[in-house]
Amino acid sequence: MTGLNRFLLSSVCVLCLAMPSLAQQKYEREYTIKPSAVPEKASKFIRDVFKGAKIHWYGEESLKQKTIEAKFKVAGKRYSIEFDPSGEVQDVEIRSSFNAIPSETRAVLTKRLNREFDKFKVVKTQIQWKADKSILQQALVAETAPKSVQVRYELILKASKKRITNYYEVLCEKSGEVVSIHEIIQRNTDNLIY
Question: By the 8 A CB rule, do 67 and 82 touch?
């Protein structure tokens, strides 16, 4: 085997070994956008459900996609509603507390997180709803998710692994089964924690 072939083979091996760790990272860049830059479908969705709410609009870029997010507070609840670039609703996230998650779910999730991290602290908890637009609108008006809404929990953790502390985003099912864990690569976590 020539020196060039050995170099190419070792380079491919290094890339293959590095890929799984890259897949577990999440990069987000969030920036404010003017209401005039928001697609009409997204504005209408918010207006139809939350009349008179003061909305903060954000553009969000990740490694995979661009989205638009409406963040606001109504009747003591913090909402984050994500839309695709055309204005179609993707999901609704409602700020909650870790202790508000059902105890069985928390137990399954905590057991998994204790295996994953040396120590962790839950910084933010959100209930995530996914469904068709009309079902989400009805759920928001009723302030409860019917069976047709997929309910998940999204957590932001400050956690340590091998003495290195980072922020992580954890998504889990209603059962507590972890869907994904991503290390957050972001310059400014302020909007993320909002």
Answer: yes
